[in-house]
Amino acid sequence: MATNAKTVKRRIKSIANTKKITKAMELVAASKMRRATQLVTASRPFAQLSWQTINAIGKATQKSSHPLLEKNEDAEKTLFVLITADRGLAGGLNSNMIKEAMLAIKSVDDGTTIDAIAIGRRGGDALTRNKVEVIARFEDLSNKPTFGAILPVGNLILESYYQKKYKRVLLGYTDFVSSLSQKPRIIELLPLGAADRELGSVSKNDSVAEEKQEQKLEYLFEPDPQEVLNRMLPRLVETMLYQALLESSASEHSARMLAMRNATDSANDMLKELTFTFNRIRQASITQEIAEISSSKAAIE
């Protein structure tokens, strides 16, 4: 009986310590989430307008060719850029993104092989385990994402595409829908204007209205379309990468906050059950001791 009480007491102490850790991690994640959500919501309109601009430029300059608007048909490889977290303890965030990425990689049926760029330790490790060729890794970007931090990734992608190494470039990231919902997404980053896509959650009505408005617009290029494309398109690619990083960062902190909150709630439930069990064991021990005293007194009399 005494041994059982000590064991339960040790478990209560251990779970109480774990609860303190998960509560502290929840508060830290909540603080980071607030900053990340402010950044992602502030930059999302610009990123969405950038996609619309890319599609409009692609339609308005059909006679003006640019390497970033054309698919490299002779290339034998496809580049996949995967954005995940560096750390775990974020529920199913990383596993869902990795699962979606692997499905997208396996569904590439144009005869090309896959090279990958991993932004985040978890994604890089998963790609290596699945025998996907990782040509570059970038870590510690999602904790405090900045535009300058994403520029080396953008330069690597642009230089490779200019050199016609890749037929197309795919981008996998986690879209921040809300603090309770994060959705893995795969988009075609290059060639630009290849498909309709948006970074961030946009309603269908908004998309239809924007498309109608876009059809009424006319564009004038100064000094000429080629010069505008040369200056504008690489910056837009970098903007899209940065927005995807912001979306993934906000998703990571939100998922971690929710996971730690659930862990804290589970610890509270376990503490209640163990405290009840400990009190029951202690009460049984006291009852047994009273019974032994009574029996001893009766035997003496």
Give a verbal description of the structure:
- This is ATP synthase gamma chain.
- This protein is α/β, with parallel strands linked by helices and 301 residues long.
- It has two domains: 2-28 and 260-292, Helix Hairpins (Orthogonal Bundle), CATH 1.10.287.80; 31-256, ATP synthase, F1 complex, gamma subunit (Pyruvate Kinase, Chain: A, domain 1).
- The chain contains six helices and five strands, in the order H-E-H-E-H-E-H-E-E-H-H.
- It has a five-stranded mixed sheet with strand order 3-2-1-4-5, sandwiched between helices.
- Helix 3 links the parallel strand 2 and strand 3 (133-138).
- Helix 2 packs across helix 3 (121-129) and helix 4 (147-162) crosses helix 6.
- It starts with a helix and ends with a helix.
Features:
6 helices, five-stranded mixed sheet, 5 strands, alpha/beta, 13% strand, Pyruvate Kinase, Chain: A, domain 1, elongated, Helix Hairpins, 301 residues
Would you spell out the secondary-structure blueprint of this structure?
Blueprint: H1 2-60, E1 77-83, H2 93-106, E2 113-119, H3 121-129, E3 133-138, H4 147-162, E4 169-178, E5 181-190, H5 204-215, H6 225-300
Parallel strand pairs: 1-2, 1-4, 2-3
Antiparallel strand pairs: 4-5
Helix pairs in contact: 1-6, 2-3, 4-6
Strand segment count: 5
CATH topology group of the largest domain? Pyruvate Kinase, Chain: A, domain 1
What integer value in Å does the Rg equal? 28 Å
Q: Characterize the largest beta sheet: strand count, sense, and whether it forms a barrel.
A: 5 strands, mixed
Counting structural domains, the number is 2
- Average the pLDDT over all residues and give the rounded result: 83
Q: Gap between N and C termini, in Å?
A: 29 Å
What series of H and E elements makes up the topology? Answer: HEHEHEHEEHH
Low-confidence stretches: 202-210
Residues in β-strands, percent: 5-15%
Function: Produces ATP from ADP in the presence of a proton gradient across the membrane. The gamma chain is believed to be important in regulating ATPase activity and the flow of protons through the CF(0) complex.
Main location: membrane
Pfam family, one: ATP-synt
Subcellular location: Cell membrane; Membrane
